[in-house]
């Protein structure tokens, strides 16, 4: 989560337009509220000591400002070539981290039920519930297909929204 938060800070730090900064800041604030509540629940679930919970929470809360400081520092570089290289490097690292987490960590866990050997021991499978009135459908490969269709549909919605906005960053 700290790497994710760091790159959110980078996204805030590279903004030169005040309007875009405030839009991203509001989105990050709402997103971080959910992430931090989830993190607190996980700490409680694993009976983390108070010292560990406090230390890790302080570290996590410092990562967004650290990302902003790094991005602002890179924007302050005198040489335009090095400034561009630094920005491209940070943006590429942020995009690569996002793609890695989405494709390697989250999607496989969501697309495969625990019965199929996926899920990394977690029960994130809402559709394939054993209490389903149609247990044969719940354990079939159709569930993965339905989830994949919804993932593709979500991506299509974001592409459509981005094409309506028309801004190219």
UniProtKB/TrEMBL annotation:
<dbReference type="GO" id="GO:0005886">
    <property type="term" value="C:plasma membrane"/>
</dbReference>
<feature type="transmembrane region" description="Helical">
    <location>
        <begin position="20"/>
        <end position="41"/>
    </location>
</feature>
<keyword id="KW-0472">Membrane</keyword>
<protein>
    <submittedName>
        <fullName>Uncharacterized protein</fullName>
    </submittedName>
</protein>
<keyword id="KW-1133">Transmembrane helix</keyword>
<keyword id="KW-0812">Transmembrane</keyword>
<dbReference type="GO" id="GO:0005385">
    <property type="term" value="F:zinc ion transmembrane transporter activity"/>
</dbReference>
<dbReference type="InterPro" id="IPR003689">
    <property type="entry name" value="ZIP"/>
</dbReference>
<feature type="transmembrane region" description="Helical">
    <location>
        <begin position="53"/>
        <end position="74"/>
    </location>
</feature>
<feature type="transmembrane region" description="Helical">
    <location>
        <begin position="142"/>
        <end position="161"/>
    </location>
</feature>
<dbReference type="Pfam" id="PF02535">
    <property type="entry name" value="Zip"/>
</dbReference>
């Amino acid at each position: 989560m700290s790497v994710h938060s760091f790159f959110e800070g980078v996204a805030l730090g590279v903004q030169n337009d005040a309007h875009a900064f405030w839009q991203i800041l509001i989105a990050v604030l709402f997103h971080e509220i959910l992430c931090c509540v989830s993190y607190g629940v996980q700490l409680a679930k694993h009976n983390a000591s108070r010292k560990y919970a406090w230390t890790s929470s302080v570290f996590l809360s410092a990562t967004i400002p650290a990302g902003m400081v790094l991005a602002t520092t890179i924007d302050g570089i005198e040489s335009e070539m090095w400034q561009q290289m630094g920005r491209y490097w940070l943006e590429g690292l942020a995009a690569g981290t996002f793609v890695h987490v989405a494709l390697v960590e989250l999607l496989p866990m969501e697309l495969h039920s625990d019965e199929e050997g996926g899920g990394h021991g977690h029960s994130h499978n809402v559709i394939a519930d054993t209490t389903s009135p149609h247990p044969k459908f719940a354990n079939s490969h159709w569930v993965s297909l339905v989830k994949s269709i919804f993932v593709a549909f979500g991506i299509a919605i974001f592409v459509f929204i981005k094409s309506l906005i028309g801004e190219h960053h």
